[in-house]
TrEMBL record:
Source organism (scientific name): Denticeps clupeoides (denticle herring)
Gene: ATP8B4
Region feature (Disordered): 1180-1213
Cellular component GO terms, alphabetical: plasma membrane; trans-Golgi network
Classification of source organism: Eukaryota, Metazoa, Chordata, Craniata, Vertebrata
Compositional bias of kind Polar residues: 1195-1213
Domain P-type ATPase C-terminal as annotated: residue spans: 869-1123
Protein name: Phospholipid-transporting ATPase
Ranges annotated as spanning the membrane: 128-146, 302-324, 344-370, 900-921, 933-953, 983-1002, 1022-1040, 1052-1075, 1095-1116
Principal place of residence: membrane
SUPFAM superfamilies: Calcium ATPase, transmembrane domain M (SSF81665), HAD-like (SSF56784), Metal cation-transporting ATPase, ATP-binding domain N (SSF81660)
Amino acid sequence: MEGSSQSCTAFFFFLDLFIAHNISENCNIFWSGTVSTFLLTLGLFKHNCVINDQIKHDSVRIVKQVKPFSNDREFNEKFSYADNRIKTSKYNIFTFLPINLFEQFQRVANAYFLVLLILQLIPEISSLSWFTTIVPLVLVLAITAIKDATDDFVSSVTSFQPQPRLEVILRNRNNEKWMNVRVGDIIKLENNQFVATNLKVRQALTVTSDLGADIGRLAEFDGNVICEPPNNKLDRFIGTLYWRDNKYPLDNEKMLLRGCVLRNTEWCFGLVIFAGLQTKLMQNCGRTTFKRTSIDKLMNTLVLWIFAFLICMGIILAVGNTIWEVKVGRNFWAYLLWDELLSNAVLSGFLTFWSYIIILNTVVPISLYVSVEVLRLGHSYFINWDRRMYYSKKDTPAEARTTTLNEELGQVEFIFSDKTGTLTQNIMVFNKCSINGNTYGKVLVSQMRVLRSCLLYQKTPCVDFSFNPLRDQKFRFHDSSLVEAIKLEEPLVQEFFRLLALCHTVMPEERSEGELLYQAQSPDEGALVTAARNFGYVFRARTPETITLYEMGQPVTYQLLAILDFNNVRKRMSVVVRNPKGQIKLYSKGADTIIFDRLDPSNEELMYTTSEHLNEFAGEGLRTLALACKDLDEDMFKEWMKKLLSASSILENREEHLGALYEEIEQGMMLLGATAIEDKLQEGVPETIACLTLANIKIWVLTGDKLETAMNIGYSCNMLRDDMNKVFIISGHTMLEVQQELRKAKSHILGISSEKCSNGESGKAQLYNSDSVFEETIIAEYALVINGHSLAHALEADLEKLLLDIACLCKTVICCRVTPLQKAQVVDLVKRHKRAVTLAIGDGANDVSMIKTAHIGVGISGQEGMQAVLASDYSFAQFRFLQRLLLVHGRWSYHRMCNFLCYFFYKNFAFTLVHFWFGFFCGFSAQTVYDQWFITLFNIVYTSLPVLAMGIFDQDVNEQYSLRYPNLYKPGQTNLLFNKRKFFICTLQGICTSSLLFFIPYGAFLSSVRDDGSNISDQQAFAVTIATSLVIVVSVQIGLDTNYWTAVNHFFIWGSLAMYFAIMFAMTSDGLFSIFPNQFPFIGTARNSLSQKSVWLVILLTTVVCIMPMVVYRFLRTDLRPTLSDKVRLMQQATRRQGPQEQNLKRVRRTSSRRSAYAFAHQQGYGELITSGKNMRVANSAQSVPSLDMKENGSGCTESAQKKNGTSFNQER
């Protein structure tokens, strides 16, 4: 409800709040009135009742009656009513340490290193100092804890929005914060305060209208509400108000839900019914779960496998030690002076097992987790810093609100999208029309050329409406012939726009002379009335009995006799008016198929012509309405009105009786024409959907809109096309009907595909019994559209698998009229049965549950508040940015993470397994090859920065080619770059490298001597040679793995090599030995070893032998079996000096034999509300405005068309 200049009295219940009173005349939900009472929902109440877990879709059972008293906190506090506090953070100062440590030790590697640390404290089995384990472990836990605490703090701070103080009407009148509101309070809401409604019909109880705006009387209000327990049914509420020894029924139309914004009125009052977590919005919000990526889960599995491999190596070496002790070692026991206990071969083998578990512990890489967190943080900053995802109009950058899911963005297979505000702008524009067989609004083509298979049009200049002082300055139209027809006073053209100005439920607001603002329940109606306004038929004012127009500057008042309201069955609305000449006219608009069936037979030829025009409009994805009128006989109308009054008082089957009377009078109408409205999509939506589809990403639309509207947007986005083989519409009302429709759809798909296979078109008929495989063999394209009540049955356990099978066989899936909980259930269905990554994207509070349920949640900061953004993992301002988020940042993150993991496991196996080979030559004594400092610093200093640089900056192809070739995204969906097979290949490469690192120096030093003839093969010289070879080999290997070199990569790789030699020479220097003789005993080892030419020759030979097989393999693979990434990279290198070529996915005009969805996103109940007068002031100032003289200023303008910035309305979701 947007602000208005005045307000009026009303009293509401808030269901989450019962609204007490005061709504302005021109509020969008049409609640205002001089003495009216409203029952709305704000979302602020909890009562001490048991929630019935067996609540079904079609009924609500009240488990326990609840009796909150208004304005009586002392009484209500005796019960377990909830306060209005909502916690968004995961930790607090007391729970952070235990909860965070619990989460971290769910990682197997962390738990393993904790056990390892305990083992290292046992002297009998530890051959390494404890600091080699505790330093990395504490570092890992501390860095991860700091990151988690920061993320949770930032999330809770951004989730906390400072709320204005509310005026709580208690007997001691005071102001309270939102969190202090309690059940039973009567509160005052003001314009633009959060509590909002999506412009739905809300009618208050008239019994409270006497309270007026008297704050004192409101403070004394002592009503008692008994209602249903908290539940997630947004469209249902059952309760009763007990007041003054009477009871009054309460339903959903008297409730205002939490999560909306109060607009179009200055203020209103309401009684709190539900609060905090028991409001219907919060009941529809799923629990916040700890999201982990598939790579995280795989890493846990791999760590278990590595641990098993470590156990096997320990057992092998322990058995070797036992055998060696029996055959060889016992000969030396007498000289070692061991205790009798230690002189047991079996016990020695047992202790050796644990010693090798400690020595080989680096095969389980604890530093891996710290490195992964650093990479994810870097990738998140790249998303935040991306200027191409910055929306300058709202000063909104993209934001990675979590740092744990970045690589998952490169593996998305299913996208679940909301419609309104996500795909569309929710802005309707009057585009074209057909009047008496003539079309208007055609864009003349002054130039047409073909560019990349797309037609580009240059539009004619827009029409000049300056002759109309009451025009809407933002309105644009491109056919001046329609203005000329108006000026020539063609009767049917005049009647056409007169209908648009009369047949609606719009409320006008005139803040100043000539400044009109229309408050429309749907943007469709707003667009039609605005069009009539600009063409000279200005809707200026209304009362319950009259409608005032300004027709070409002259005021004309029509008597409003009846409103034949819209509903989903009628698909039309009509008004009966008496013009100043005394003639009674019926004006009707609705779906063309409905209107055509009620036309006079004389309209057959015109109907055929108009139908052709409608097909043309539908081919352009426009929303259409047919318009008709009828002259009524006075006597006949009087008889009909008697029947109408009689039917209106019937209690049973009232709707059926009224519908029959409406049908009776709406026969034999005369066709006037049709309108075509464009539901403006967000910029780049069709191109984004087309690009994501090419990337093998399935997009499902989950919306609260009606079926026709959802399908129309599907066609506009090119998700639905006329060349599809079939669009299945599931609309059964019972489980049996839904089951039959689903089975019929599946039989149709499999049957046609079977025929094609039998004719040799596919050749895979044997795969029909496997739906998961059969999806790949489907040649035809199908779409599935299912509404909310059918989806409720389809999500039952007996039908959910059938629903999923059919949905996955279809190219497009659209679910309409779904609740927030159903959105989450659909996402969960795919998560449970498909091994695929899901992403949910939305912009409103009703998308929160879906966003939380999906693997990845994306929030769009649109016009419906920040609830979706606050619950999301990533956020930005426009749907088109999703393409860049997935195909660029997501793919890069996945590519970088996979290359990082492959390299990390490779280097750790190459580093650690040298000890395994050495065990066979040291009597299995658990002696290490390297000194302890090298073991400690290898992963932390010598090799950490190069792999981080590769993991943060690497690109296989640049961003332009990533967008130009969406197929590059597919490897992530099938985990091709890192999986169990890749892991085994990396570990095998590491094992082979470790064997070469050990045996080549061992063989070379076996009989070699120094230049002076002395022996060169002492243990420390051998260790220095292997360590140096290892550092050089892994540095060369990461150079081969790097596709995109930056200055940082060069600095880290060469800097790490320089750091290794500097530290090695320093640790074997005289200076450190003199200061710490026990810690650095091997003085001069590096200098003596590396001064020998033979040592360098061995290092060079080892490096070449370790690296060359991989170089040859990669060369042959790229040359003989290149991947798409290889091909694109070569293409990129070949065209590096050329400018980037942007992908040009232009929207292609669609031709359609299907009628576009009719432009009437309307709701039943407004006709009765308008005629009752409860939404208006008694006096209307607009009626006193004098007539305006319209002068002709021309019909054309030379300025180019500007972008339409029509008022945005909140449409029902």
